Amino acid sequence: MNSINKTLYIPLYGKAYVSKRGLFLKDPKAEEIWAAAAFPLKGKAESKWLAFYLGIRAAVFDDWVKKQMEEDGDCIILHLGCGLDSRCLRAGDGRHPWYDVDQPAVMDERKEHYAETAEYHMLSGDLREDTFLRSLPGGKRAIVVLEGVGMYMKPKEMEAMFRALAGHFQTVALLVDCYTPLAARMSRIKNPIKTVGVEQVYAVAGPEALEAAGFSFLREHDMTPNHFINELQGMEKVIFKKLYAGRLSRKLYRMYEYRKA
Questions:
Q1: What is the rounded distance in angstroms from the CA atom of residue 36 to the CA atom of residue 61?
Q2: pLDDT value at position 190?
Q3: Which secondary structure element, helix H or strand E, spans residue 239, and what is its range?
Q4: Among 33, 217, 226, 239, which is most exposed with the fewest C-beta within 10 angstroms?
Q5: Distance (Å, rounded) from C-alpha 113 to C-alpha 107?
Q6: With contact defined as beta carbons under 8 Å apart, do 39 and 11 qualify?
Q7: Rounded to an integer, what distance in angstroms lies between the CA atom of residue 129 and that of residue 58?
Q8: Do residues 30 and 16 make contact, with C-beta atoms less than 8 angstroms apart?
Q9: CA pair distance 105, 188, nearest whole angstrom
Q10: Is 145 helix (H, G, I), strand (E, B) or coil?
Q11: d(CA 220, CA 210)
């Protein structure tokens, strides 16, 4: 795997950690894969505070996907840059066709831990190209998840991907998390992804920057909702709320929902 692909082990560890502690989400598959992977992390990448943050982020995405599926029974789920994430198990309902997409090297490893079914599919593809879309049914409605992906794509690449999705599907509901320009600048100095060799990240200046090809900004989502923070206790809750859910955090990291109707 290249350095960007290796970043998947950071959220995998986070979800395994919080799942084992019974916080935010239940993810036995993450626990299983992390135990088998034994990938070496160090520094902030293995801190419990980052694990809490990534666990909550995953839970927010999960809840959004479930809500979208409840509102639309005739659509497909498209998880772009899925890594080794088990959202298909945590949020999938077995009725909506689900497609996980990532780089070939990632999907080769993923196939060691997951099996395709009539409703669940794994596709290899580069998100900066649109060739993977040829394997997807066109003309349908799609729910698209972009978790932990936006910061590795140039703005023009993101725009091109949005245009490709808009051209392939009738309607699209899309949720993406992004670095702000401040976060991108700070990442040059210190960022957990540096521990796996990633040096370059990209920012989204604001929600309007991704309004392309008929996509409209719908709303911003809270990255750290209080009902998840309240699962923490004592000083963990106090410290997490101060460091990861305050004004500084919002200056660094945002989550935007878009709709192409």
A1: 25
A2: 60
A3: helix 234-244
A4: 226
A5: 10
A6: no
A7: 25
A8: yes
A9: 26
A10: strand
A11: 13
Going by C-alpha positions, the residue among 208, 195, 198, 115 that lies closest to residue 155 is 208
The residue assigned the tokens 């596709």 is: 123
Tokens of 215: 């996509």
Smallest CA-to-CA distance from 196 within 1, 52, 15 is with 1
CA–CA distance, 19 with 14 (Å, rounded to integer) = 8
Of 260, 252, 261, the closest CA to residue 57 belongs to: 252
Closest to 87 measured CA to CA, from 126, 55, 61:
61
Q: Helix 9-20 crosses helix 28-37 at what angle (to 10 degrees)?
A: 120
| Model pTM score | 0.93
50 closest CA partner among 4, 7, 91, 17: 17
Q: Tokens in use for 225?
A: 């909702």
Locate 166 and state its tokens: 């808009």
Q: How confident is the model over 227-250, as pLDDT tens digits?
A: 999 999 999 999 999 888 988 888
User: Which pLDDT tens digit goes with each residue over 104-144?
Assistant: 999 999 999 999 999 999 999 999 998 999 999 877 899 99
pLDDT in tens, 83-94: 999 999 999 999
Task: Give the separation between CA 186 and CA 105, rounded to whole angstroms.
Answer: 29
